[in-house]
Specification:
globular; single chain; 16% strand
């Protein structure tokens, strides 16, 4: 797309990433802690820590690490229960994670009558109820497989990350050339989303003629909250040694 052209006759679409863009930090781990409770969450972190470390070291891809984490914490719970947990997290906890300037920008688009869409790799279980309260027009997130009414922890389709964000937007909205697009993101997982926008905003909510050097989003920890990953490294030492010795696939199968 031509980022410089302006087409006032086209309907305007504003696409927002969630974690690190609309929020101050990652939302998945706070959701999991809310879902399973403090003790089970921290014990679970010890169990999946070798996978988190392997992900941080780029030994396994984003989707594989996410599936292992989601399977460990959520596998076996009913889909009805998952939706209830997502609703509770969205209404009781997400407001504490929101970035004030991001919400203001969202409201500005809505006041102008622009179509707004939330596009995130986070689970739709809590994105959808939150987005409904925030009056988004569409929600695109990561969906989980359900078998016999129970969550498996596996991702349904593809993790909504990188190119998949654009694919899912096209499936939801049709040809994107029909819109004049504002896009907001903060990481390499938003690269493709920003590339299709007429007005891409990377770590900022201001237009280029308004931006000054101190008004961009502060950098966030990459690779899933480095603080959590690094804090788990000591406990993961033995597990990681086994992981490297036996090979990624065998180890993931053993703990999955």
């Amino acid at each position: 797309m031509n980022h410089q052209s302006s087409e006032p006759s086209l309907p305007i679409l504003a696409a927002f990433d969630f974690d690190g863009t609309l929020t101050l930090r990652d939302s998945l781990f706070p959701f999991l802690k809310s879902a399973v409770g403090h003790w089970r969450f921290y014990l679970g972190l010890v169990w999946v820590s070798p996978v988190l470390v392997a992900y941080a070291l780029r030994l396994i891809p984003n989707w594989k690490a996410k599936e292992v984490v989601l399977t460990h914490f959520l596998s076996g719970i009913s889909d009805v229960r998952l939706q209830a947990l997502g609703e509770r997290f969205a209404t009781q906890s997400l407001s504490k994670l929101l970035r004030t300037e991001a919400v203001k920008r969202l409201r500005w688009h809505q006041e102008q009558g622009h179509k707004t869409v939330l596009v995130s790799a986070s689970p739709e279980a809590y994105l959808r109820p939150w987005a409904r309260e925030m009056a988004f027009d569409d929600v695109i997130g990561t969906r989980l497989k359900v078998s016999d009414g129970a969550v498996t922890g596996q991702i349904l389709g593809q993790n909504c990350y990188g190119p998949e964000k654009v694919h899912r937007m096209k499936a939801c909205l049709g040809e994107l050339e029909r819109y004049y697009i504002y896009a907001y993101g903060d990481s390499k997982g938003d690269r493709e989303l920003l590339s299709v926008a007429n007005c891409p905003h990377y770590r900022t909510f201001l237009d280029s003629n308004q931006l000054s050097s101190n008004e961009a989003l502060p950098p966030k920890a990459n690779r899933w909250e480095r603080g959590i990953i690094l804090s788990a490294m000591a406990a993961a030492g033995l597990y990681l040694a086994i992981f490297l010795w036996t090979g990624a696939e065998q180890f993931l199968e053993a703990i999955g």
